[in-house]
Amino acid sequence: MDFSLTSEQDLLATTARNLLAKQCPPALVRSHVTDRSVQAPLWACLRDYAELGRNNCTDLCIFLEELGYVAAPGPFFASVALFAGLLESLDADSALRDATAAGEIVGTVAVAGLNGFWVPSDDLVKSFIVDADIADHIALVHATDSGVVVTVLTNPGERALTPVSTVDQSRRFFEWDTGDEIGGIIPCSPEAWSAFIDRSHVAIAADMVGTARRLFDMTLHYAKEREQFGKPIGSFQAIQHKLADMSLVVERARASVQYASMTVDAGSADRTRACHVAKAAAGRAARSALLEGIQIHGGIGYTEEHDLHLFMRRATASEYLLGPTSWHLDRISDEIFA
């Protein structure tokens, strides 16, 4: 199978990389910890790419990988990868879909119950809602006796949202007691839900691959610059082996994401399993990159003064978003032995 990018996709990746290098330096991610508003100028640039939410999954994942590389804050993932993806799967109101694709509104999705898993349930309390405080709309996914239903509500920031504390401050999470606000405005068929959640799994996997790649690049650069015994530590065989292992696991995850996004676009019978594999591979890559990265960086890697911790935090939180690695491995087993 040919995994090479087309000329248009190469241009998309290059454009995203150059844009984010200017608009989202580590200083902006740091500032976002204490000042939520600093993401607004970045979103003003990224909203021009909101159309990717209704475009093919491969292009979306190319863009998301670059966003993960800089640990970009803001609503792009919640609104474009999740909210727009759900609206397209449901074939929802065209005006709402068009406004989301144009970047005119921001949306997010509430699925997980108190257990944190992104599986429709009848829990009235929804948790781990991504960037709900800056969203204009929230798609509330609820399981009923007759099936899954979706309610699109406006102005979620006016509701009693409770912040959920995580290690990552570049992406905020909230809990919401929905009370009696659940209504079956839009029915969600099993096929529509499967299409949405598979696309979401590979989307967050692409984001994680970008973060893992950033951790590797930072570690490689440090190994070339840091000297011990009069030589760069990257010249030591033990460090070279660690860097080779990091590179291998990141590239394996990247290939898994590319294949999974292609199965989504093709509507392949292997789609669900491929998307679980992508998320599990990305989780392992992120975990490996942060563990080896912090070890090679040594003591400085543990300090908040160094930028490494920004991407370690993003990698750690993203591994659990939309299901931890172990959960996806269990789903792969279910697919194999069904």
Please give the structural blueprint.
Blueprint lengths: L6 H17 L2 H7 L7 H7 L10 H13 L6 H15 L3 H8 L5 E4 L14 E6 L6 E8 L2 E8 L6 E4 L8 E5 L8 E3 L1 H36 L1 E2 L2 E2 L4 H30 L4 H27 L10 H13 L4 H13 L1
Parallel strand pairs: 1-3
Antiparallel strand pairs: 2-6, 3-4, 4-7, 5-6, 8-9
What does it look like?
There is one protein chain. This protein is globular. It is an alpha+beta fold and 338 residues long. The protein has a domain at 190-337: Butyryl-CoA Dehydrogenase, subunit A, domain 3 (Up-down Bundle). A hairpin with a 2-residue loop joins strand 3 and strand 4. The strands form three sheets. The chain has a four-stranded mixed β-sheet. Strands 2-6-5 form a three-stranded antiparallel β-sheet, with no helix packed on it. The chain has a two-stranded antiparallel sheet with strand order 8-9. The chain has helices at 7-23, 26-32, 40-46, 57-69, 76-90, 94-101, 190-225, 237-266, 271-297, 308-320, 325-337, and strands spanning 107-110, 125-130, 137-144, 147-154, 161-164, 173-177, 186-188, 227-228, 231-232. 48% of the residues are buried. The chain contains eleven helices and nine strands.
